[in-house]
Amino acid sequence: METSNLVQRGNILQVNCYKRSSYEVSPEFLISGCTTFQVKVLEVKMQSSHTAMCHILVRFFKNCPKDNNTYSITLSSSKLSIAEKSFLSDDGTWHLIKESDQVLAFDISVVMDTVHISSFEALYDDTELVDFELRGEDGSVKVHKAVLAASSHVLKRMLSGSWRETKEGHVDVPGTSAQTLQHFKDYIYLRKLPNTGLEQVLLLASYYMIPQLEQKCVNKLVNSLTAQTTCDLLEFAMKHKVNRLILAILECVQNRCVEVKDMRSFFSTCTDNNCEELP
């Protein structure tokens, strides 16, 4: 299957597909490094009318069998008149999305997300049952130990053990602002992410080993990459050894979502500025 105008940016995939024969299969498209999406077109001849019907199918599956997450995609296509059709990751079964007598070219737009089994939204504003405190450099955030434990096995191990923090009812999070801790609480209770300050939330997710939050932060960061932010974000990822973010940035550059020539000019500017500051 011929494809064009491929855009792969974080958890977003956009591509145009062209049917040239009666049986076509697209390349396997990697989304966020953890799932694969593929399109198939099959022409079926109808004996009754002596015409052919074109069947368009897709499949969506996890790349790692040991991945305990469940993923979903929202699929849209203006040419096929499909608006936000949802699929869950499975064993790679093909699913029919369109049946038509004339299909030569069509567009596919996919947005992937992680499926969350439960939410603690009802406890978000609770003040009576809170029994733990996350302390940052300039303030603290009150939370429920049970919610923390359900969100991270690292936190669960800490809270269920004989750690000093458990007995004192709080834990200090060095180098973290109260705003970042609030963003962290917003996610574990409401599954909401901020529009700014994602880098610090990503570091918390990495430290407490919450892969779903890590991936969501990475997706949101790379979805708005520019030449300048790519350089800044790559420097941040390398400094803090956030491999998930490093790979996502490199994938965006490889797919030409960001042009290397534009990045080169920015790197040159940075180098010149650094040289001027040297004694």
Automatic annotation (TrEMBL):
Residues 130-197 form the BTB domain. CDD domains: BTB_POZ_ZBTB_KLHL-like. SUPFAM superfamilies: POZ domain. This is BTB domain-containing protein. InterPro entries: BTB/POZ_dom, SKP1/BTB/POZ_sf. SMART domains: BTB. Pfam families: BTB.
